[in-house]
Design a protein that fits this description.
By secondary structure, this protein is mainly alpha-helical. The chain is built from 16 helices and two strands. It is a multi-pass membrane protein.
Length: 389
């Protein structure tokens, strides 16, 4: 009897979630309350929590076990980092070009003509300095407490001095504000990745007799965690039904003008993602290897569908590794590059966030130059590196 593959089951779950959400939305007279939505999404919430619980040990054990081979780790790590920076930069450039060509924020735009003279004269309050964000990135790379790094991230906070709280001192510069800090909730993946990498490299300097017990422990633990995640992922087709249907019910009705903006924005993002995934990345692959990239795209289909259904790149790491193994990639390479890329590489979010920022400025009647668009994007990139999951 025919049985659909795992990616097909997840895709069917996504479609079923969309259908269920639309049916519940238009067949119920009253909008759903937050409590009702919480009940509906509860199975999906449990699924995401189970995956998130296993992602951190999977990433740590994968990087330690793979980087313990000192000869391969250095060259592979440098090549991978160069690739990630290159593709993210290409994604940013593509998003800026598409935003300037399509101009989604100006499609049948809102009538803001009366407000534009005021809007252009208003200087928004800037609550951060780019240098602070970059320094926070370095601080998070070198955590002072590994246990705390599993739970929180360092963030610089600028506050106005007490003596400047009066209205006549509201123009105080951000450079003159008091510098404090806080730890925000969320795993410091960057710091843990670097610590795991250093630990693995140090392990690789030892003799085979000395390193094998510890190396074998991490390899075995990584295999066990990957197997458990495979069990959890089997529940994804059912879980995504509840996740997607809840998101559909949370979405708000839009008027014709808002819908025109939404269609333009979503269309620009999808066009950018399609060009990046189907043209830019395959071209980079072809230039680097000389082989056809489209055979690879077909082979990694399960990872793509899994990522779309769970909305998590790190949760897709086991599926990605399995796809790479089927392609004949060296296991030591796949177990190092896959978790590293899932936490560092940011092509999609870089493209999406750039288009979103330019879209908002266009809607408000502000016309950014190409240089200003690039400056905004790279400022935002440092913030994302500090806050990504």
């Amino acid at each position: 009897m025919w049985r659909p593959s795992a990616p097909a089951r997840i895709l069917l779950g996504i479609l079923a979630g969309l259908a269920l959400g639309l049916a519940l939305r238009y067949w119920t007279a009253q909008p759903w309350s937050e409590r009702e939505l919480m009940y509906l999404q509860f199975p999906g919430e449990i699924f995401i929590q189970m995956v998130n619980c296993l992602v951190l040990p999977l990433v740590v054990t994968s990087i330690v076990s793979a980087s313990s081979d000192l000869g391969k780790s250095g060259s592979i790590g440098i090549k991978a980092l160069y690739y990630y920076i290159t593709t993210t930069s290409l994604g940013i450039t593509l998003s800026i070009l598409l935003s300037q060509i399509i101009r989604p924020g100006q499609w049948d735009s809102f009538d803001l003509s009366a407000d534009k003279s005021n809007i252009t004269n208003v200087k928004p309050r800037i609550n951060f300095v780019t240098a602070d964000v970059f320094l926070d990135l370095l601080r998070n790379l070198y955590p002072d407490n590994l246990i705390r790094a599993c739970l929180s991230q360092y963030q610089t906070v600028l506050v106005e001095p007490k003596q400047s709280a009066s209205s006549e001192n509201m123009g105080i510069s951000t450079y003159d504000m008091d510098i404090t800090y806080r730890y925000t909730q969320g795993t410091n993946i960057l710091g843990l990745v670097l610590c795991s990498l250093v630990f693995g490299l140090a392990l690789g300097t030892m003799s085979d007799e000395q390193k094998w017990p510890l190396q074998g422990f991490f390899i075995g633990l990584n295999t066990v965690i990957a197997e458990i995640i495979e069990w959890v992922i089997k529940s994804a087709p059912i879980s995504v039904v509840f996740l997607i249907s809840g998101k559909v019910l949370r979405s708000e009705e839009s008027g014709a003008t808002e819908m025109a903006h939404l269609v333009a924005f979503v269309g620009t993002v999808l066009a950018g993602l399609a060009i990046q995934a189907l043209l830019v990345l395959p071209l980079v692959f072809f230039i680097s290897t000389g082989h056809s990239p489209y055979r690879i795209l077909g082979a990694i289909g399960p990872a793509l569908v899994n990522a779309f259904g769970t909305s998590s790149s790190t949760a897709t790491v086991p599926t990605t590794i399995r796809c790479l193994d089927k392609l004949g990639v060296d296991p030591q390479v796949s177990r190092f590059v896959a978790p590293f890329g899932a936490t560092i590489n940011m092509d999609g979010i870089a493209l999406y966030e750039t288009i979103g920022a330019i879209f908002i400025t266009q809607m408000r009647g502000l016309d950014l130059s190409l240089v200003e668009s690039i400056a905004i994007r790279y400022d935002k990139l440092f913030i994302e590196l500090n806050q990504f999951y």
